[in-house]
Fold:
Amino acid sequence: MRELRILFTGAGRRVELLQAFRQAAQVLGVSLKLYGADMAGTAPALAFCDYSRKICAMKDRDYIPQLLEICEKDRIDLVIPTIDTDLLVLSEHKEAFHKAGVAVMISALDKVRLCRDKNDTTAFFHSCGLKAPETVNDYMAYRGPFPCFIKPKDGSSSIDAYKVDEKEQLLTYAERVKDYIIQPFIDGKEYTVDIFCDPEGNPIYITPRERLAVRSGEVLKTKIVLDERIVAECRELVRQFVPCGPITVQLIREKETGDDYYIEINPRYGGGAPLSIKAGADSAQMTLRLLLGEKPGFQSGGVQDGAVYSRFDQSIRIVSESRPMGGRIRKISGVIFDLDDTLYAEKQYVKSGFHAVAKFLGEGGAEEKLWRCFTEGKNAIDALLRELGRETEKEECLHVYRFHQPEISLYAGVADMLGRLRDNGLRVGIITDGRPEGQRSKLQALGIGLPEEDIIITDELGGVQFRKPCDIAFRILQRRWGLPFEELVYVGDNPEKDFRAAIQLGMESIYFENPDGLYYREDAPENAYGIKICDIEDAYRVIKGYMI
Structure:
């Protein structure tokens, strides 16, 4: 199955949303890479992406060209905007992305515009036959009732939105809020409806939930309420709006009359959308299914009605500043190493395996041909067997390669470094991916000599799904050692998968930028994966600095 690549713009704090996509890919058995575009590079959600990309401000004239360049270079399949300031510019240039072969999860330009002006939003609600609070754009023309609400006509996240109890206050807020609207205050239960549609605007999920607790416009506690009237009203809204992907609708059910008053549409994932996903309205999974060419219809079941969800904040360390090698930061009590291309050269193992296969085949020049195919990016054994007309021997060749006794050796200074770390009282361990038979033979050939409990081959935990960047192996080793994650450091070489779990768990990271490694990246950003070293022996000097 082909790999899917999704780029989130303005990812900010959307960790829950990224985790939902991650889980959806696991459930579907899909290979998924998540990218985050950010101006400062300090958004917490970036730590949960596979790759982060620096980009100029969304209002900059170079924003779209830079975003298109990122999409082309990284072969992005889908762009998902997550904040209001990005919606208009992306909808204006949606066709440019389409021509580049990139889908953008954004509704039509005229619909995005009507959402940005609450006067137009109110008019749209009325055109759908829905009730909405009447808007006034001049405080002097507002005749009541009180209390009322004054807010920016293109605002979001409840910024500069104020409840006004009497007319005398209205002037004060009118002078404070730029380009405002005034609406009567509707007293009643507040609801958010998470709606998700296919690219043609056909609804897949319509999930109402009551807002039980809110902070700065974003829900902290919510209850899933599959209210038939709200669902029916939103079906009509969807029919006229024709959304692409997610939209979030807000309404208030008036306490006295029971009438629904619709107040806002956000044509993007709302901050609380992951709560609906957790309840069963899995729009993340549906997004991946749509990218794979499926056409799921409206999902009328599977959502847990009445479920109550509460949210909490969690801290994560963002690596953003250079630090001098060996500069003391905090206490380190344990060090976890990657194996391949970190402690020894994986190309040694490949050459050793090719030597064993060539010996098995008994063909002159076979070893050199295998290596040439490998350096050309081909499946070397397949290519050679096709050339020799011996394709039927593939399984035997693979068995020879996987079970051969390798001729490999540790990088210079590694054995001494491991010994010095242990002599200083540090726990030392290895977490490595790969077939158990191959990884075990490597460890035996290298003679590392660590206790069995300090080595984890992720495939032995239950299969390839436990390979890095899955964090299970890190959690197991941390629990065995009884040390806090904050006192552990991870050393690895592969920017694609090695560091995400360590960063998310709060560990320190040391990136061995290994030019001879199979996963070397010339464009790896400075400090994105922790302290960068260019010689594995330097890892000891860095770690020693922590122990001072």
